[in-house]
Design goal:
single chain; elongated; FAD/NAD(P)-binding domain
Length: 333
Amino acid sequence: MTEKYAVVVIGGGAAGLSAALVLGRARQRTLVVDAGEPRNAPAAHMQGYLTRDGMPPAEFLALGREEIARYGVELVRDRVVEVTRGEDVTGVQGKAFTEALGEDFTVSPGEDFTVVLTGGRTVRARRLIVATGLKDELPRVAGVAERFGRDVLHCPFCHGWEVRDQPFGVLASSPASVHQALMVSQWSKDVRFFLHTVAEEELSDEDLRRLAAAGVEVVPGEVTGLVVEDDRLTGVRLADGAEHARSVLFLAPRAVPQTGLLERLGAELHDTPFGAYPVVDATGLTTVPGVWAAGNAIGFTEQVVHAASGGYRAASAIVGDLLMTDLDAAAQV
């Protein structure tokens, strides 16, 4: 028999666990499906979360899993491969699902969702929260991937204090990288902006004036690798063989939103400088009735504290939505 849940939360990071905590405390039968691939896994610690500043991300998630278990929330380590809306299950798209589920399988048009996991398990949910986050696609420079989250960084608010006053490098990926070079100059007065594949003429006069005012040195030439000694970054190597002594390198990964499930459900997306994300209201409700999104699933700049808040908002909205739906249905009987 297909298991039925009030809510299925897809993604077990800060947003998903926060939502699950609220739902469990509200006595909503909830399933969290987590693939175990948090965005901040490379980082040794997370910062800027009041009372949790400096906590390792893995420890934070472990505590969250313990908390939701107290309220009967089920968490499985798996991946969602397909989600189908109730009214679609009986159509051509849902034929495979109905055949697998048998003749006794029924749906409530416009309300139920069928969720299929990699392991073959199929469940139903009245509401969904998509908290699948995003992936960071790093520049293809030798050594960058191995050191990302250690001394190759992307967010000064996350790591700036820990590396303050050290020699910084900033790897340009586009003219917009000027903003990152200017921001990190607040944590170090020794900053070199490596243009990499960006031509100097692509920078505006205003960019150059601001970089000069901030004391940021502009270095033309492509970066081909890092210099590492005793398992720590000591420099940046250019294509012409020149090496610049640096102990920290900031860069801007290309954000790859994990919106596949939302797109298949028909959610409207909007373009941003960091990729296309779902259109949501203040609670995280997407343009698909019954589907909410939270955390990095709605934007590149959602830090852990934002993600947890977004999960809370989505869950509380769902609790009210389910209540009103059931009360309206009862009133019509």
